[in-house]
Amino acid sequence: MQTMSRVNAIAGRGLEGDRYCNLSGTYSSHPGDGRQVTLIEVEALEALRREYQIALQPGLARRNIVTCGVALNHLITREFRIGAVILRGTRLCEPCQHLEKLSSKGAMRGLIHRGGLRAEIIAGGLIQVGDPIVVVKD
Predict the structure, then answer these.
(1) I need a surface site. Which of 21, 38, 42, 81 has the fewest CB within 10 A?
(2) How many CB atoms lie within 10 A of CB 132?
């Protein structure tokens, strides 16, 4: 996991340099949607700390983009823009055993239904830290 201030999003593939864009991710050989981009709310990580006393740094959440002030669960099936990029929310990004193994016991339970969003890239371009998230199509 690496923190970046900007990244190029490639339509139909993923984020440039990401393991799933490069087809080297754990589940790259399994069919399924939602591996192009994953997002998580910083508020979910704050709640994990507050409610479960688990301090999970944003980079260790194993999501591509950390958001603030956006209800990601509401973006399922909706198209939204981040910077120049248009994405479509496909499904929740529920936490897994691997995340808990890398972080702390209880992290998986604490992030159920607030582990983030999986999205597909409809139109590529540049995403930068601070770009707003705006719904473009319901």
Answers:
(1) 42
(2) 11
Q: Are 86 and 123 in contact (CB under 8 A)?
A: yes
Residues 6+ apart with CB under 8 A from 67: 39, 40, 41, 42, 133
In terms of C-beta density within 10 A (0-12 exposed, 13-18 middle, 19 or more buried), how is residue 127 classed? buried
Q: What is the pLDDT of residues 48-93, one digit of tens each?
A: 999 999 998 888 888 889 999 999 999 999 999 999 999 999 999 9
Average pLDDT of span 8-15: 92
**Given a cut of 80, is residue 10 above it in pLDDT?**
yes
Residue ranges of the domains in the chain?
6-137
Q: Which CATH number fits domain 6-137: 2.40.33.20, 2.60.40.650, 3.40.630.10, 3.40.50.80?
A: 2.40.33.20
SS3 93: coil
